[in-house]
Specification:
homodimer; mainly alpha; Farnesyl Diphosphate Synthase; globular; Polyprenyl_synt_CS (chains A, B); Isoprenoid_synthase_dom_sf (chains A, B)
């Protein structure tokens, strides 16, 4: 089955699903944020996974939408916490309405995700809810760690990976796992799909960090070096800080990190030069390939026919090779 | 079984339950708000209800705690929205920490309620989750209506009752319903218990509105007339506004509602005098008794022995006769 068909089914469901209307003011922000688009990676993963076993993968569409609704709930609340004015080129909910609306509509959106999961048939329902509960709590844990890291002096690579595992990767893991559970797959397969999702998530995030520094502006669609300008503790920056002494660039790197006024382009160019001296890009690519390889290894172990695996393999390769 | 034993079991579970610790900073606000006390009405209702059929009512303790955790989640988020500095005599979470913490710890608290519900046995689990989903969404809907009413010109009694039904009463209904489902009761009994809870909730709220104006300060423990000072659209004020013309006090009432500076005691005394002219207290008491009577009627219809019903009847009578 082609990815395109999964995405069509998801977008149709997003366009048609009614969350509630009593009062409409509570539900408008849900429909708004869901209408802003996005890659719909997570629900696509659920359908891909379900279709490994299920001919009738359509029965996974509502559970798949639950994952996308949960993801957008986290965006709605994260945007308040980050005071982000823009999401996907449009005003964020707390900007378009206000913070109270973004809190309360976010809350009901989390409940809406559980309502969509109630479409899972009885035999698999408790398993799904328990796994979703754990995942949802972990995503909150990851967001908490992310906020704490912003003011933490030293963040190790292990800590960073643990943070992105929780904040981002476990939901990709759950998305794939969910499809397998809904399809009635055996526990070994369910576990392998979870592992594929988590490792794709980690690889995806390291790739994101690489693109922010080494991507082409025209393709990435946002200012290159944004993370450097903000002193963000990305995988690359943590690597640079860990190796700066070995390469004799501690003082230079710290000078740029501590400068309060600077020309953006000048800072990006200078820090990038330090990264190049250390070989940060190669380190990051090696780490990224490591995670993608773990995902491909799990995919290999999965006991389904090669042609069925192909849609997941291509999807993973697209994530690996993407330039934006 | 005495109420005291239920409350002991709940307080023990609250003291011992571990929500998570990774990172502790995310979970500290949960433990804090749960430690602030409160009447624990809702989990007590769940245990009372379960004990109508179940000798071993202890198996309902974790589900009962889920209701209390959910209730405290709503308080944590409502306090942000209301900019409330104090909750149960202590600093609110967004004051003691900050707004971001109160948002995120609240989110994980909602998930924690679902985690506790996962203790319900498989046969009843989906029923419980579906009813909880609906209830949780309705509580958000009630909070949204409450916020909208603050700036709405005319609020009718029907609208007000619908708002408090959603914001407060359905959770009391669910608390009783949950105990019955966990105990494996028949659907007719489950529905009767829900109806008891909802009507107790409505009666409870009208009683609250009465006590705010007509309670004894020493017993109520807060300033009498707070709702009048803030022009809050309570059951009493709505009744007064509806009948003001009939009693020729429209101008007088509006003068007090529109005054921007006033002496608090003077306003409370004057508005109370208008209420007395109209007979607002009698109207409110009649409405309150109406709801309590509906609850007692449903209790009468319930097919369990009289001595088992007694704990719920006494509990309801205590709510009806309370002076604070």
């Amino acid at each position: 089955m082609a990815l395109k068909l999964y995405l069509e089914a998801i977008n149709k469901e997003i366009a048609e699903h009614k969350y509630g209307n009593h009062p409409q003011e509570l539900y408008d922000p849900l429909e708004y944020i869901m209408s802003l688009g996005g890659k719909r990676l997570r629900p696509a993963l659920t359908l891909m996974s379900a279709n490994l076993w299920l001919y009738n993968w359509q029965k996974a569409v509502k559970p798949a939408l639950a994952v996308e609704v949960f993801h957008n709930f986290t965006l709605m609340h994260d945007d308040i916490m980050d005071q982000a004015p823009i999401r996907r080129g449009q005003a964020t909910v707390h900007e378009k309405w206000d913070t109270n609306t973004a809190i309360l509509s976010g809350d009901v959106m989390l409940v809406a995700a559980y309502e969509l999961l109630a479409e899972v048939e009885d035999a698999n329902f408790k398993h799904v809810i328990k796994r979703f509960n754990r995942t949802a709590a972990e995503v909150c844990e990851g967001q908490q760690l992310d906020m704490m890291f912003a003011s933490k002096e030293n963040v190790s690579k292990e800590e960073y990976i643990e943070m992105i595992r929780l904040k981002t990767s476990v939901l990709l893991g759950f998305a794939l796992e969910l499809g397998a559970i809904v399809a009635g797959a055996d526990q070994e397969s369910v576990d392998l799909l979870y592992s594929i999702g988590v490792n794709l998530g980690l690889g995806f995030q390291v790739k994101d960090d690489i693109l922010d520094v080494y991507g082409e502006q025209a393709k990435v669609g946002k200012q290159i070096g944004g993370d450097i300008i903000e002193n963000k503790k990305t995988w690359l920056m943590i690597d640079a800080l860990e190796k700066a002494e070995e390469f004799g660039v501690v003082k230079e790197l710290n000078t740029w990190l501590q400068k309060e006024t600077f020309d953006n382009t000048e800072k990006v160019t200078a820090v990038k030069a330090i990264f190049d001296t250390i070989g940060v890009k190669q380190d990051a690519e090696q780490a990224m390939h490591g995670y993608f390889n773990l995902a491909f290894d799990s995919l290999k172990k999965l006991n389904v026919s090669e042609d069925k695996k192909q849609v997941i393999r291509s999807f993973a390769e697209d994530l690996l090779n993407r330039e934006h």
